Fold:
Amino acid sequence: MRLATVREAAMSAVDTRVAAAQAGDRKALAALVTELLPRVRNLVRYLVRGDGDADDLAQEAMIAIVRGLPSHRGEGSFTAWADRVAVRATFAGVRRTRRDRARLDAGADLASVPHPDGPPDEYAARRATVRLLDQIPDDQRHVVVLHHVLGLSVPEIADELAVPFETVRSRLRIGIGKLRALHAEAAAAPPAGTPGGTP
Structure:
């Protein structure tokens, strides 16, 4: 069977589950949530720092996807729609957390993580990517993830983040430059446990 045929069959199966879930089929909804959760968790972890925050925000993103399911009209890929909902829910959660932390501060005086069942090499590569993303500012991190993970264009990112087109281009260029420099630095470092390396 050709790869394109396999993809079409997989998309058709997802569309069938989505339609069934929209019609009130709880088993179809549970299957859809189970299938989406690792993808959403990975995306959220790419966007935010810290596994704890990512777990909470991924849960919120999944709730937003389930609640928004009736509004999905089947125009385009379901996973692309779910990605957009997850991104919006994540950004809303990040903004809320920052507001809450700011209030607490004022009163007192803010690679993916892949599914653990995934292949070990993929898990290690994504963890390495996440570690690099954790070292760049959030504004650059967000545009890099939206562009290189979700495949959004610069105008789409500008619309999604409500920032000027040129701002997105600048953040993307600077963010990618920093990631490349960090990657080169990590590649040149001695392995852990060797003289000069991390114990």
Q: What stands out?
A: Residues 91 and 100 are 14 Å apart (CA to CA).
